[in-house]
Amino acid sequence: MKETSEQWYKEWQAKKSSVKKQNKKFINKLAQHKGKRLDVFADEIDERTFKKVDCLQCANCCSSIPPIVNNTDVNRIAKHLGMKPQEFEDTYLMIDEDQDKVMKTTPCTFLQEDNMCSIYEVRPKACREYPHTGSQEFSNNLHLHAPNAFYCPAVFHILEEMKKNIPV
Ligand code: SF4
Ligand code: SF4
Questions:
Q1: Angle CA(118)–CA(91)–CA(59) in degrees, nearest 5?
Q2: Does residue 26 contact residue 168 with C-beta atoms inside 8 Å?
Q3: pLDDT digits over 124-159, tens only?
Q4: Count of alpha carbons within 13 angstroms of residue 25, beta-carbon side
Q5: 137 and 117 within one domain
Q6: Backbone CA torsion sign across 12, 167, 26, 49
Q7: Is residue 55 within 6 Å of ligand 2 at its C-beta?
Q8: How far is CA 85 from CA 77, 80, 95, in A?
Q9: Does residue 105 form part of some domain?
Q10: Residue 53 CB: number of other CB atoms within 10 A?
């Protein structure tokens, strides 16, 4: 693990539980800043953060959060695996409490020992977009960031930097 990445990972592990309430409060107040300016700022922090965090040394999202798999994902992944869409659904998916189709197993079946995704080229949209902090997506996914900071060291550090820079 890169030195910075390792330090950041340890800091996240040590503090992720204790900042849960604080992050929830911060995000609630941040709602009044929703919009283009916040998204541009988030994009800058997101880019800096992902230069320091090494996802291949982490894979905590793939190990802990079952991704939503939409119908377009089902067709694409099933084709890639040489399966019928229904066969893919029956084998790998289940319906969660929000009535979304999600991966059945956690850690994800497609997560390999080296933390690579065995279906990376055709992975679900939700996996491609996680953790929704960059690409002008921050404001639209505001409600996800506080819970995600518990699972994702990158989101944790993005919120830490925001708390230092945005007086809410
Ligand atoms: S499909 Fe791939 S990227 Fe998505 S959770 Fe599974 S291993 Fe991770
Ligand atoms: S939890 Fe966050 S830092 Fe870890 S692999 Fe997933 S996106 Fe990368």
A1: 35
A2: yes
A3: 999 999 999 998 899 999 999 999 999 999 999 999
A4: 8
A5: no
A6: negative
A7: yes
A8: 8, 10, 15
A9: yes
A10: 22
Please report the pLDDT score of residue 35 as a whole number. Answer: 87
Is any ligand 1 atom within 6 A of the Cβ of residue 110?
Answer: yes
Beta-strand (E) ranges in 18-99? 93-95
The response to whether residue 62 sits with its C-beta less than 6 Å from ligand 1 reads yes
β-bridge partners, 93: 103
The β-bridge partners of 102 are 68, 94
Which residue has its alpha carbon closest to ligand 1 atom 7? 111
Residue 93, pLDDT > 90, answer yes
For residues 84 and 118, membership in a common domain is answered with: yes
Residue located via tokens 């089902």: 74
**Nearest residue to 159 via CA among 131, 123, 130, 124:** 131
Q: Assess contact for 116 and 162: CB atoms under 8 A.
A: no
Q: Clarify whether residues 154 and 115 are in a common domain.
A: no
Report whether residue 67 contacts ligand 1, using a CB cutoff of 6 Å: yes
| pLDDT over 90, % of the chain | 84
| Same domain for 137 and 56 | yes
Kindly state whether residues 56 and 75 are assigned to the same domain: no
Is 73 within a domain?
yes
Structural domain for 159, as ranges: 20-62+131-165
